[in-house]
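HUMAN: I'm a chemist; might I ask for a sequence paired with its structure tokens?

ASSISTANT:
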Amino acid sequence: MPNAVLLLSGGLDSTTLLAHAMNEGFDVYAMTFRYGQRHSTEIDAALHVASAYRVRDHVIVDIDLRTFGGSALTSDIDVPKDRDLSDGEQHGIPITYVPARNTIFLSFALAWAEVLAAQDIFIGVNALDYSGYPDCRREYIEAYERMANLATRGGVEGTNPIRIRTPLIDLTKAQIIRLGLELGVDYALTQSCYDPDSTGAACGHCDACQLRLRGFAEAGAKDPARYAKP
């Protein structure tokens, strides 16, 4: 089976992505980041998901983006709650955007892919039901792939060209959930909330929770995640 590096956050999208990649026949090497985010529940979720799927290897990379801050996820800024996302439109880039996060993550994944002679890097970006992040768009992914093939030995020599795989990019959250259910994903393992409580229960009010809950409702399924009481 061909090797692939997959960015695994422990969330709904990346877990669906993992199930899809393995269903496509890839031997998956999963990479998770402890980047100074405000909670560790997503790390725990990623560990459980990687174990459940028996990936070939799972590494947790420690970097500290709190050094720069600039995001509600990496500094003492309140996570926005109950924003109106009902119209499906994006209203600017929210404060939960972590500056250059996907560029940093993909750079680590690219280095590991080069060592593994893996041509495929999977990332669960989505351009439809997302919070307005600039590094989730198709044009960004295409530009990064071009750069990756200019920056690696295999890309320059043509022996191991890099592909950034984004099979979820044009799917709605409901479509992603339906795909995952077809693949047998246990969404109880996943964690999406930006601001869970001390027990790990999701808040139900941040953008990530709203998009997740709406996705399950539109998919006609029940979200098995644990939510804090109102």
